[in-house]
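Could you please review the protein record set out just below?
***
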Amino acid sequence: MSRSPREPYRGRVLLAKPGLDGHDRGALVIMRALRDAGFEVIYTGRRQTSAQIAVAAIQESVDVIGLSILSGSHVELSRRVLAELARRDAADIPVVVGGTVRPQEHAELERLGVAAVFPTGTPLAQCVEGVARVLAEDPEDPESVVSSHAAG
């Protein structure tokens, strides 16, 4: 189902699967949910390096990066992507992480600078609203999302 022309544009999201994890069903489901909610979504595909993800995010002028990781190495892979963004002067692009994230690792991801964590089993609506909150001017009100692309 595509976005209705009357739905507000909520922002541009780059979805990526870093590392060697070859399972992308979850990323594809999230991609559909975000598109249905009014986001523009770019999916880079599986097995992306941190450099490939950072370059794609910069080239596509995205508002947020979503990393889908099932391999259990989300802390290290997130650290690498955040470092690549910083190295390329793009640390202002927020990164959210979804996948098999153990609860005790949420704090480590937040310490690294990850904007939101959506562990396996998070309802789709909660993921969508979480991404909206990351992009919102008012973090408590997802309706206040104003994308840099919406103004232009």
User: Anything to note?
Assistant: DSSP finds six helices and five strands in the chain.
